[in-house]
């Protein structure tokens, strides 16, 4: 698999790098490297994937090294969206030894975390292959890293749900509890929304779904439904709205969920719990 995905804006990447380096370098910088390595010492290094996976975050890694020292040479050997085998060299670096070691952990944190999300997403996409359902993420993301994590989902072949509370209306169970009814909540939302804003509503059973459909939502989130109920829900909607299945999605059941006929299967796990891809920096001896 080799997926081409548009990067987030430079300003977002640069801000993330600056904040992460400020957190790591603190008030005095890398005192270990400064104390043990002579200032003019050079080094060559290789970024290596210790296990197979889908890569995401190469530009962040490169930007981290060059932010610490603009003279650092970063030669990328793999790109975001590319599937690599264990042992694959992802990039070669040369420059100041101090600078490379000072940037190492932040660069690896970005690359390992985002590649882990891309790899987990790719596994879900592969598991659901042969169906029409798309794998999508949620807002269950690391605070401050949502745009980057959603980018990683796209690198893994998934799609993005809303980016925040401001770009789509999603009426959830607590909204419905306060309003007092599914249909009334949808009616209020459609009356307030602009003509380009989509309205989705979360429902727990077929009775709620029938009430929701009477108010013509753009999409329905079928929450924690068993497979038989999901199939019945898809038939009830009958293509009048987008169907999204959510809740309890795992690599073991995602294919069965996708086969019910839903349009999307959403998973918070692929962003909040995906294990990082093991990526290391090896200094040439």
Topology:
Elements: H1 10-25, H2 31-36, E1 42-49, E2 53-54, H3 58-68, E3 73-76, E4 83-84, E5 89-96, H4 97-127, E6 134-136, H5 146-155, E7 169-171, H6 173-179, H7 182-192, E8 199-203, H8 206-213, E9 219-223, H9 227-237, E10 242-246, H10 254-258, E11 264-266, H11 269-272, E12 279-283
Helix pairs in contact: 1-3, 1-4, 3-4, 4-5, 8-9
Keywords:
single chain; 285 residues; alpha/beta; Aldehyde Oxidoreductase, domain 3; TIM Barrel; 2 domains; six-stranded parallel beta sheet; four-stranded antiparallel beta sheet; 12 strands; 42% helix
Which sequence of strands runs across the widest sheet?
6-11-10-9-8-7
**Which structural class is indicated by helix and strand composition?**
alpha/beta
Fill in the CATH topology of the largest domain.
TIM Barrel
What is the level 1 CATH name of the largest domain? Alpha Beta
> DSSP strand (E) fraction?
15-25%
The major pleated sheet works out as: 6 strands, parallel
Low-confidence stretches: none
Instruction: Label the overall shape.
Output: elongated
Helicity, as a percent range? 40-55%
Count of all domains: 2
**Strands, count:** 12
Tell me the CATH superfamily of the largest domain: Aldolase class I
Q: Count of helical segments?
A: 11
CATH architecture of the largest domain: Alpha-Beta Barrel
Order of helices and strands: HHEEHEEEHEHEHHEHEHEHEHE
